[in-house]
Amino acid sequence: MPLFSKESLKCILKDLSFIEMLNKLDGMVHLPNHHLGRYGYFLKKPFIITVHDLIRYFDLKGYGPFIHKPNFRDRIYLSLNYQGIRKAKK
Question: Global pTM?
Fold first, then answer.
């Protein structure tokens, strides 16, 4: 899917809606997968995240590819995931 296709823009709108819903929840949010770090990065409230593995991080940093070499979209999402992980309270 091209980065700026109609379908990509729909996905971005869904992502923004999901972030808005997470920010409205009471208490601390638990993101049960490190790929959800991209949402945590934009949260205005504390959250925790479960990191299951670092293999995509290794791909992003050029130690692999272990899964596949990240394309432009992958690099954006993976970067946001790991920025979200760093922002998490636990």
Answer: 0.81
